[in-house]
Design a protein that fits this description.
By secondary structure, the chain is mainly α. It is built from 14 helices and five strands. Among the domains are: 101 residues; 162 residues, Intergrase catalytic core (hpI Integrase, Chain A), CATH 1.10.443.10. Strand 2 and strand 3 form a beta hairpin.
C-alpha cells in the first residue's frame, strides 16, 4: 500500500496506486505458479533422463543376450570338434572372444601345417609333444617368411601350450623350455601401404550393383573408406543403427561407449540400397514361409490361413550378413559377417580388379587422410573413435 499523503495529492500517483497494490498482492500467487512450473519442468527432465537410461539399459541387456547366445553357438562348434577338458587347442579357443576365434584358428592351422603336412587338424595335433628344437625351428621360419604375423602366431602357440599345462597334458618345466623363444621385435616403420585414388576407384568399381553381393561389398567399402569405420565396427552394425531420418549412423563402441556419425549423400545411397535389398529378400522369405504354412493348413483343415502383414526386418538384425553359394547364385544367410570375412572380401575384390592387395586398414587410412584435410582434429577424433587427438599422420 501507499499511505503517503504527498503521493495521493498527485493525480498520476493516485491513478497508478491501485495497480501497484494489485501487483504487490499478486506477487505471492505468481511466485507459486512459477515455482510449480519449474518443478513440473524439472520432473519432466528427470522423467526423460530416466526413460533414456531405461532404454539404454534395455538395449545393453538385449545386446548382452545376443552376444551370450552367439558365444554359446560358437562354444558348441568347438565342443563338437573336441572336448576342452582334454584338448589343449579347444581349451584355448573357448577362452577367446567369438570374433577372435577364427583368426586364432587360422594361426594355429599354420603351426600345424609347418609340423605336419598330412592335413592333420588343430584338434588332432599333439601339442604337448612339441620339443624346444621344433618350436625354435618354427620361430626361425616365421621370422624369415612371415615377420609381420610372427608375434601373433607365437602368442597363439604359447596360449595352447599353457592350456596343455592346465589340463595336465604338459609339465610346467617342459612348457618353460618349449615356449622360451627369442623376442620378435616389429619394425617401427609403418606397414600401411599408401593407396592411390585410381586403385580405390578400381576396387569399388569392381562391385557390380546389379548383384546382391556387389551391393553389400560396395556398402562395406564405402563405410570403411568414407566414414572411417573399422572392420569390427562394420560387422557389429545392426539394421536399427542406420538412422535414415537423421542421415546418420550409430556406432556401438567398446565398454558401452558409442558415437553417432553423419553420412554423406553417397553413403546414404549405398546403405539405403543395401537395406532396401535386405528388406525385400526378408519379405520374400517371410512370404514363402507363410505360403508353406498356408498349404499345410489347407491340407489339414481345408481352410486357408488368414492373410497377415509381413513383419519388417528386426532392428537388431545384423546389417551385413554372410552369403551362401547355391545353384541359383549367392543367397543371403542370417549369420553376421565376421571381421576375417571382410579381409577375405578385400582380397577377392583386389584380385578381380587386378590391383595390388589393399587391406581394410589401408583403405581406412586412405579415407581418413582425405577427411582430415582442413578438418578440426577434435571433430575427427570423435568421428573416428580415436582416444588420442593424434590420428593417422
Amino acid at each position: 500500500m501507499l499511505p503517503t499523503d504527498s503521493l495521493l495529492e498527485n493525480k498520476e500517483a493516485a491513478r497508478i496506486a491501485p495497480q501497484l497494490d494489485r501487483t504487490v498482492e499478486s506477487k505471492p500467487h505468481d511466485a507459486k505458479v512459477t515455482e510449480a512450473a519449474r518443478l513440473a519442468a524439472d520432473a519432466r527432465i528427470v522423467e526423460e533422463f530416466r526413460l533414456a537410461a531405461d532404454a539404454k539399459k534395455a538395449r545393453l541387456a538385449a545386446d548382452a543376450k545376443i552376444a551370450q547366445e552367439a558365444r554359446l553357438v560358437a562354444d558348441t562348434k568347438i565342443t563338437e570338434c573336441a572336448d576342452p577338458k582334454s584338448n589343449a587347442a579347444a581349451a584355448y579357443l573357448i577362452t577367446l572372444g567369438v570374433g577372435s576365434r577364427s583368426v586364432v584358428s587360422a594361426r594355429l592351422k599354420k603351426i600345424v601345417g609347418f609340423f605336419d603336412s598330412s592335413g592333420c587338424s588343430l584338434y588332432d595335433f599333439s601339442w604337448e609333444k612339441l620339443t624346444p628344437a621344433q618350436t625354435l625351428a618354427l620361430h626361425k621360419h616365421l621370422v624369415r617368411d612371415s615377420p609381420k604375423n610372427a608375434p601373433e602366431i607365437i602368442s597363439a602357440l604359447r596360449g595352447v601350450l599353457l592350456e596343455a599345462v592346465k589340463i595336465g597334458q604338459m609339465k610346467e618345466d617342459d612348457y618353460d623350455l618349449v615356449s622360451h623363444l627369442p623376442t620378435i621385435r616389429k619394425s617401427k616403420s609403418s606397414s600401411v601401404r599408401e593407396c592411390s585414388h585410381e586403385e580405390v576407384v578400381r576396387l569399388t568399381g569392381i562391385c557390380d550393383p546389379k548383384t546382391i553381393v556387389g551391393v553389400r561389398d560396395h556398402a562395406i567399402m564405402g563405410l570403411i573408406a568414407y566414414a572411417g569405420l573399422r572392420r569390427r565396427e562394420v560387422v557389429a552394425l545392426n539394421i536399427g543403427d542406420f538412422r535414415k531420418e537423421n542421415r546418420g549412423l550409430h556406432i556401438a563402441g567398446v565398454k558401452g561407449k558409442s558415437r553417432g556419425i553423419p553420412l554423406s549423400q553417397w553413403l546414404m545411397f549405398l546403405l539405403n540400397q543395401w537395406v532396401t535389398e535386405r528388406q525385400r529378400l526378408h519379405s520374400a522369405s517371410q512370404l514363402a514361409l507363410w505360403e508353406e504354412k498356408n498349404r499345410e493348413s489347407e491340407k489339414l483343415t481345408g481352410r486357408p490361413l488368414p492373410v497377415e502383414d509381413l513383419p519388417p526386418l528386426p532392428e537388431n538384425s545384423p546389417m551385413f550378413v554372410a552369403m551362401r553359394k547355391s545353384e541359383n547364385g549367392s543367397k543371403l544367410t542370417s549369420s553376421r559377417l565376421t571381421a576375417q570375412a571382410i579381409t577375405g572380401i578385400f582380397e577377392n575384390r583386389c584380385q578381380e580388379a587386378g590391383i595390388e592387395k589393399i587391406s581394410p586398414g589401408e583403405l581406412r587410412v586412405y579415407g581418413l587422410r582425405n577427411l582430415m584435410v582442413g578438418a578440426d582434429i577434435s571433430i575427427m577424433q570423435y568421428l573416428t573413435g580415436y582416444k588420442k587427438t593424434v590420428v593417422a599422420q
